Every structure is written in structure tokens, then in C-alpha cells.
């Protein structure tokens, strides 16, 4: 089972396309949708929703995959549920770059301060990070610097921030899910 966390643009047709592509990794791909606008409510909702989805599956190696803001959530919710995650162009600092886009971006800082201390160190090796060299929204080099001590980082030379096609990385995602 793959749990797919969409990015800030929840209604983008690209989400359906990425989920379709992920069916080459696992035919059970489930959308985990959330409001994107209310972080504290999203956190509680996502914890409950992922717990419910995991109970409905017998997959011994479930995987959470998120793009952009969805990667922020996939990493944290995956850690709290002890499942591996794939982070695609993760938005690691929404409290800084979501100002004016959501109601209370400062809630992300609050969530970060309440999360398990040094959670990435405790989650070492349980994440795969795919970054676009040409991300026009986020600083992918800063993301690589922050995440590379904990997760394998893979660079993509063609995709932009929304990462329209995962095709070049599907075999790597499949191998990561299986190991």
C-alpha cells in the first residue's frame, strides 16, 4: 500500500497522474487528502486517517509518499506510524514560505516544536528524498543539505517543483519500499 499525500495544490490534476504512476510500484495507492489551510487540524486528521488506512491493509511494507507540502506531512506522519517515506521536493519550512497562503502558518513551527526531538535521527534510513535540481519554488540544495545525513537523496535533472512525472524514479521507489 502507498499512501499519497498531495501538495498545497490539492486539486491539481497532477495528483491523479502521480497516483496512477505509483500503481506501477503497488496497485494499492490511496490518496490521503487534507485541508492544507489549518495545520493543527490537519495534523490530527492525518494521524487518524493514516492509522485507519494502515488497519485496513495487510501490506507488511506500507509507504507514505508526499510532494511539496505533502512531503512535510508524509515525513512526520510516516515517522509517527513507523512507516517508510518518500519525500518529493519537500516543503521543510512551511511556517516561513506559506505566509499569506494559509490562515496560521506559525502552527507549523508549533508542530515542529512538539514533534519528537531529533525525529530525523530516530528515522534515519527510513526515508528517500527525490529533489528537482530545477525547483522554481523551494531551495532544493538547502533541502539536500538538511536531509542527506538522514535519508538517501536522489537528484532529478528534468522535473520542476510539482514533479509531473515520477516515471524515472519508480524502480527506485519500488526497491526502497521492498527493502
Average pLDDT number: 92
Q: Which radius of gyration do the C-alpha atoms yield?
A: 15 Å
Order of SSEs, N→C?
A: EHEHEHEHHHEHEH
The best one-word shape is globular
| CATH fold-level name | Rossmann fold
Estimate percent helicity: 40-55%
In whole angstroms, how far apart are the ends? 14 Å
Indicate the multimeric state.
Answer: single chain
Number of strands: 6
- State the CATH class: Alpha Beta
Structural commentary:
With 179 residues, the chain is α/β, with parallel strands linked by helices. It has a single domain (2-178), classed as Alpha/Beta hydrolase fold, catalytic domain (Rossmann fold). Helices cover 41% and strands 16% of the residues. It contains eight helices and six strands; from the N terminus they run E-H-E-H-E-H-E-H-H-H-E-H-E-H. It has helices at 13-22, 39-55, 69-80, 94-97, 106-114, 119-122, 140-147, 170-178, and strands at residues 2-5, 29-32, 63-67, 84-88, 127-132, 152-156. A six-stranded parallel β-sheet has the order 2-1-3-4-5-6, with helices on both faces. Helix 7 (140-147) links the parallel strand 5 and strand 6 (152-156). The longest helix has 17 residues, at 39-55. The protein starts with a strand and ends with a helix. The mean pLDDT is 92.
Structure keywords:
single chain; alpha/beta; Rossmann fold; six-stranded parallel beta sheet; 8 helices; 6 strands; AB_hydrolase_fold; UPF0227 protein BEL05_17170; UPF0227; UPF0227/Esterase_YqiA
Topology:
Blueprint: E1 2-5, H1 13-22, E2 29-32, H2 39-55, E3 63-67, H3 69-80, E4 84-88, H4 94-97, H5 106-114, H6 119-122, E5 127-132, H7 140-147, E6 152-156, H8 170-178
Parallel strand pairs: 1-2, 1-3, 3-4, 4-5, 5-6
Amino acid at each position: 500500500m502507498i499512501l499519497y499525500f498531495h501538495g498545497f495544490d490539492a486539486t491539481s490534476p497532477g495528483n491523479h497522474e502521480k497516483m496512477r504512476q505509483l500503481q506501477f510500484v503497488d496497485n494499492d495507492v490511496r490518496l490521503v487528502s487534507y485541508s492544507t489551510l489549518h495545520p493543527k487540524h490537519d495534523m490530527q486528521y492525518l494521524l487518524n486517517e493514516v492509522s485507519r488506512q494502515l488497519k485496513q491493509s495487510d501490506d507488511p511494507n506500507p509507504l507514505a509518499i508526499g510532494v511539496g507540502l505533502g512531503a512535510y506531512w508524509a515525513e512526520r506522519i510516516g515517522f509517527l506510524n513507523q512507516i517508510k517515506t518518500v519525500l518529493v521536493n519537500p516543503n521543510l519550512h512551511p511556517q516561513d514560505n506559506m505566509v499569506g497562503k494559509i490562515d496560521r502558518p506559525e502552527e507549523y513551527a508549533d508542530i515542529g516544536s512538539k514533534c519528537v526531538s531529533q525525529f530525523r535521527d530516530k528515522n534515519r534510513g527510513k526515508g528517500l528524498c527525490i529533489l528537482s535540481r530545477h525547483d522554481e519554488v523551494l531551495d532544493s540544495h538547502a533541502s539536500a543539505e538538511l536531509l542527506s545525513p538522514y535519508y538517501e537523496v536522489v537528484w532529478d535533472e528534468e522535473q520542476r517543483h510539482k514533479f509531473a512525472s515520477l516515471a524515472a524514479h519508480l524502480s527506485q521507489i519500488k526497491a526502497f519500499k521492498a527493502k
